[in-house]
Amino acid sequence: MAQEGGIINESVNIIDTPGHVDFTIEVERALRVLDGAILVMCSVGGVHSQYITVDRKMRRYEVPRVAFINKLDIMGADPWKVLNQARAKLRHHSAAVQVPIGLEENIQGLVDLIHVKANFYHGSNSENVVAGDIAYFVACI
C-alpha cells in the first residue's frame, strides 16, 4: 500500500494455482507469499484428496482462508454435503453465510445471511440481480 498526496493506492494480486497433484510445489511456493486465500470447492465433487493436501499446506504457512462452494447450478449439487465434508475432512469451523434459493436447474438466487437480504437472479443468463427482503423470498416458495 503506497500513499501519494493523501491518496492511498492499494493493489490485489490474484494467484490462481492449479489443483492437480503435479503442481504441488507451485502451490506451496504461492502459499508462502499470500496474505489470504479463497478455497474454491465444487458442490458436486466435494472435498477430495488435493483439497486436504492444499489445506494442510495453508495451515503450515498460517494462511487465513475462506471457502467458496461453486457450481450450484449443476446436476447433483449439494452444498450442505460439501460444508459437512469441510468440517469433517478439513476440520474447518464452517458456517454458511449465503444459502442458495433452489439448486441445479431450479436455482433462483441466494439468501445473504450477513445482510439479511435475498438476491434473486433474473434474465436468460441470470445477468440481473434483484435484492429483496427474505420475507419476499419466503412468500415466493
Automatic annotation (TrEMBL):
Annotated Tr-type G domain residues: 1-141
Superkingdom of this protein's organism: Eukaryota
InterPro entries per the UniProt record, alphabetical: P-loop_NTPase, Small_GTP-bd, T_Tr_GTP-bd_dom
Membrane-spanning ranges: none
Gene name linked to the record: LOC104781468
Pfam families noted in UniProt: GTP_EFTU
Keywords: Elongation factor, Protein biosynthesis
UniProt xrefs under SUPFAM superfamilies: P-loop containing nucleoside triphosphate hydrolases
Protein name: Elongation factor G-1, mitochondrial-like
